[in-house]
Amino acid sequence: MTDAERGTAFAVSIAGSDPSAGAGLQIDLKTMNACGVWGMTVVAALTAQNANHVRAIAEVDPVFVQSQIKTLQEDFPIACYKTGMLGNAPTVRAVAGALPDGVALVIDPVLIATREYRLTDDSGAKALVEELIPRATVVTPNIPEAETLSGIAITDAASMEDAASWFFDCGASAVVLKGGHAAFRKGVDVFLDRNGVRLLSGNVYPFPDVHGSGCCFASAIASYIALGYPVAEAVERGKEFVDGALRYAVEYAPRRFTMNPGWRDHTTYTKISSRR
Ligand code: PXL
């Protein structure tokens, strides 16, 4: 079946707002759009941030988070949900309570922003482990998140695989443990599902701290799942998409880079033309 024959696929991001549009709901929506699905957004937390700082965070009433999800469900056959910054345990529980059993779920366990701002508190992290990770179709921690959630220090390839297994043992059907922060084998992600471990290698580009890379990857995976690809293939396609978005990263403030989900069109952002 071609993508066109499948009809419109709907995917929902449940995450935090990043007004700079380099991460969070805004990059999720751009990514879903670029991947060919109708992306929708449930605001689970608010941030005030620019290219350099997260200046403030505001919570959203968990009852209202749930109300946004349930209202969408009245009209749309949602093929996949993706979660990002949820902030705290009551919000994690509200989200878990609103998601139907058996639905495809990409859980990006966002805890800390690239620039070291805490985005989900300790009780929220615990609730993720209890309520959402066990239901994940795919969970996509980076190394610091995997270390915090699993308690396993990731120092080499073997401990990275142990940490991936920890998520699988929690009940996630598949794990993508991202290697972008690794001091060893940098840029190589560990993919684990019931068929075992596979390594996903990626190019390493010379941009420091590319903002929104995790959000973009998880949203691309969610998009390809929503389009009907098997999970392992959705992850591979997601990785390919993220590679391009990194390669054509946007310098949206001096020495501050963010993902470019528009890379396939090469029309959206002026600065990329000089790097083609
Ligand atoms: O990249 C993680 C992330 C997720 N969600 C929001 C963010 C960030 C990083 O800054 O601001 C809202």
UniProtKB/TrEMBL annotation:
EC number from the UniProt entry: 2.7.1.49, 2.7.4.7
Source species, domain of life: Archaea
KW Acyltransferase (keyword) present: no
Alphabetical list of CDD domains matching this protein: HMPP_kinase
Keyword hit for Kinase: yes
GO MF terms held by the record: hydroxymethylpyrimidine kinase activity; phosphomethylpyrimidine kinase activity
Annotated Pyridoxamine kinase/Phosphomethylpyrimidine kinase domain residues: 18-252
Pfam family, one: Phos_pyr_kin
NCBIfam families: HMP-P_kinase
Name the record gives this protein: Bifunctional hydroxymethylpyrimidine kinase/phosphomethylpyrimidine kinase
Organism, as annotated: Methanocorpusculum petauri
